[in-house]
Description:
This protein is of the alpha+beta class.
Amino acid sequence: xxxxxxxxxxxxxxxxxxxxxxxxxxxxxxxxxxxxxxxxxxxxxxxxxxxxxxxxxxxxxxxxxxxxxxxxxxxxxxxxxxxxxxxxxxxxxxxxxxxxxxxxxxxxxxxxxxxxxxxxxxxxxxxxxxxxxxxxxxxxxxxxxxxxxxxxxxxxxxxxxxxxxxxxxxxxxxxxxxxxxxx
Length: 183
């Protein structure tokens, strides 16, 4: 009986491994055989990474088309990141501005310096807060402090006291959804 139990265990383990093993077949027309062979030679007989890269590119293209159809465009920002020693950065994503960098929410505590906030919603429903401040020294020279933050939701962003006012304004601008109560 123990021999039978061990055999069943081995079969179950093999079946579980085999069931989860990824093995897909690609069918190509005969006239594309040369294309396949050339790609195989160029990839040193390792076509899986080539196919995977092509599939990921295809997915990105299709997701971009869907996002664009829904009104999301490509947003690109270039700034010196104050969270990373003012190193120059460039970030790009698919989204829509709610408060744009051209018309940001500007907050000033003392009238000589300000903090500006631009808020966007991404095609994947994330919230981006791009903010900057201008600080003037006693000679009147300005220096800037830029930040780029991503939050999973407006609610999560609102917990950050530094961006809370911008998030509240963006929610008002976008439109606050009505919570229907069954009371």
